[in-house]
Amino acid sequence: MGGRVHTVCMPELPEVEALAADLGERLMGRAIRRVDVTEIAALKTYDPSVDALHGTTFTGTGRRGKHLVLSVDSGLHLVIHLARSGWIRWREASPRPTAGRGRGPLAARVMLEPPEAAEQTGAELGGDGFDVTEQATHKRLAIHVVQHPDRVMSIATLGPEPLETGFTEERFAAVLAHAGRAQIKGVLRDQRRIAGIGNAYSDEILHAARMSPFHPASMPPDDVARLYAALRQVLTEAVERAMGVPAASLKAEKRQGMRVHGRKGEACPVCGDTVRQVIYADSTFEYCATCQTGGKPLADRVLSRLGVRR
């Protein structure tokens, strides 16, 4: 296994959008009994404290970029960035005692008060809620409690949301022109330029557009139009597939929907050529040489110049 890089299905715009919708059905109108942070390094804010969430009621769930935003009636927001390996796991019953702070994948635990119906019927109290987990050696998950989501720096610096009505082809062209000669793979992933797209969906968008990951961002209008159409189509279809899928199944659904990402060695669904992989840093990307690079394989060393932020 020496040196092999494993594909990780990082939550991106479609999965976080569907996750917010799934949690909305479970959390709206529910009161928080308590919030326990077990991985202290994951908590990025201290004022207000997590204790300020105790006794509040959920009023909304949403998404900003790759961030999950959970709002409560006191005006506070619980903002979670799931990073590469984080996830939300719904819990139907009371949790088992934790082994200790910082051990295992558990980063935080939200416990809910019983719904009013349970109180009225004398049902067993509470126990349900959700866990915030991260299956990774290097912990990057981030939890914030803030007065407004824009108090989170990685939200305040986000680029435009690519599925909003205002993200027109003209606005997309301006983003690409500003990026100049930067490679398009990195531009699509740069959260300061466009929000919510990560490694997997940038692969899928570029494959749908039949464009090399190393293509300069500044490009002729016909190329801009083709890439814009691919971006909107890939993300829209991914959101539609993810909606209604339970949180526990969203990552598996994402993998199944990929055409080239994570499919090294398989046949391209468009032309039948073998999907190729480029390894860089601690990640990978996949592409079809016939569809995207005129049949020319890409060198791994080139992508070392792709500098992006989460």
Description:
By secondary structure, the chain is α+β, with helices and mostly antiparallel strands. The protein has two domains: 13-156, N-terminal domain of MutM-like DNA repair proteins (Alpha-Beta Barrel), CATH 3.20.190.10; 169-305, Helicase, Ruva Protein, domain 3 (Orthogonal Bundle). It has nine helices and ten strands. It has helices at 13-27, 116-121, 153-156, 169-179, 184-189, 199-208, 221-242, 250-257, 289-292; strands at residues 32-37, 58-64, 67-72, 77-81, 86-91, 106-112, 129-134, 142-146, 276-280, 283-287. α4 packs across α7 (221-242). The longest helix is centred in the C-terminal third of the chain and has 22 residues, at 221-242.
| Largest beta-sheet characterization | 4 strands, antiparallel
CATH class of the largest domain: Alpha Beta
What's the oligomerization state?
A: single chain
- What's the shape? elongated
Report the strand count.
Answer: 10
Category by helix and strand content: alpha+beta
Low-confidence spans: 1-7
CATH superfamily caption of the largest domain: MutM-like, N-terminal
Whole-number radius of gyration?
Answer: 21 Å
Q: If helices are DSSP runs of H or I spanning 4 or more residues, what is the number of helices?
A: 9
N-to-C series of helices and strands: HEEEEEEHEEHHHHHHEEH
Q: How much helical structure, as a percent, in the residues?
A: 25-40%
The span between the termini is 27 Å
Which range does the strand content fall in? 15-25%
Using the 3D structure, state the CATH architecture of the largest domain. Alpha-Beta Barrel
Spatial arrangement of strands, main beta sheet: 1-6-7-5
Mean pLDDT: 89
Question: What do we call the CATH topology of the largest domain?
Answer: N-terminal domain of MutM-like DNA repair proteins
Number of domains: 2
